[in-house]
Design a protein that fits this description.
The protein is of the alpha+beta class and 262 residues long. Helices cover 35% and strands 28% of the residues. The chain has helices at residues 5-25, 44-60, 91-95, 168-178, 191-199, 213-225, 239-242, 250-261; strands at residues 33-37, 40-43, 65-68, 72-74, 81-89, 102-109, 112-120, 125-130, 135-137, 141-143, 155-158, 184-186, 205-208, 229-232, 245-248.
């Protein structure tokens, strides 16, 4: 695997956290769970995974900033670089024993994502990318977005808001517009993996209206480096600033975006 020192550090951190998560996943019925909010769970496994990742990354790069789902934001002595981490994207799947969850780690430099890792530990699929170097799966397989050119052949992914979030009505309208035009829509519960699947050509596009930066920072670079397109959900907006995004292959993007944007 040919990557920068930072990328190799990210992969090492992801694998270290994965060992802890996989062990807990095998004993999911014994997990101690507390609630952060309606339908939004945090587990001791989640917290321990973030601790392990933070220890690995910040020991090696103590001047970098930090943004983690569980521990929040910490400014670094180097204001230009920041780790963005979701230690367990797909917590609800994890808690229900469904093997579709991931560790997401991104490195931001001067407001732009420059390195990305999304590790599907249950399937041992390591998606990674660096700016200008393409997107890859595991050690040596380069990945590309799909080449499908007709909406009716496309399969798309999204996140349907839970617990009556404010974006639910708009998302249902999105589905009503999109579903008659395509081969299917999937809601698999992990934004980082949805984007990794777009990068790998498994999904043809993805959109979501309400995300946190740690949910999609790594996936955003994967899609771009795999030849795909990423925009804010509202035309002319920045996905990283708004937390609402749309991504897809180049051939379908215009039609897909127009359909979602209504």
């Amino acid at each position: 695997m040919q990557g920068s020192a930072n990328l190799n550090l990210m992969i090492k951190a992801a694998r270290r956290a994965a060992r802890s998560l996989v062990k807990d996943f095998r004993e999911v019925e014994n997990l101690q769970v507390s609630t952060k909010g309606p339908g939004d769970f945090v587990t001791k496994a989640d917290q321990e995974a973030e601790r392990l990742i933070r220890e690995e990354l910040m020991t090696a790069r103590p001047t970098y900033g930090w943004l983690g789902e569980e521990t929040g934001s910490t400014a670094g002595a180097d204001p230009t670089r920041r780790w963005i981490v979701d230690p367990l994207d797909g917590t609800t799947n994890f808690l229900h024993g469904m093997p579709h969850w991931a560790i997401s780690i991104a490195l931001e430099h001067k407001g732009e994502i420059v390195s990305a890792v999304v590790y599907d530990a249950a399937k041992d699929e390591m998606f990674w990318a660096e700016k200008g170097s393409g997107a890859w799966l595991n050690d040596s397989r380069r990945i590309r977005v799909s080449g499908r050119r007709h909406m009716i052949e496309g399969v798309f992914a999204t996140g349907v808001p839970f617990a009556a979030k404010k974006t639910l009505p708009a998302t249902l309208q999105d589905l009503a517009r999109l579903m008659p035009t395509c081969a299917g829509v999937r809601r698999w519960g992990s934004a980082s993996l949805d984007l990794a699947y777009v990068a790998a050509g498994r999904f043809d596009g993805y959109w979501e209206r309400e995300l946190n930066l740690w949910d999609f920072a790594a996936g955003l670079l994967l899609v771009k480096e795999a030849g795909g397109m990423v925009e804010g959900l509202r035309e002319g907006t920045d996905a990283m600033e708004s937390g609402a995004m749309i991504a897809g292959n180049e051939a379908l993007f215009s039609t897909f975006a127009k359909t979602i944007r209504g």
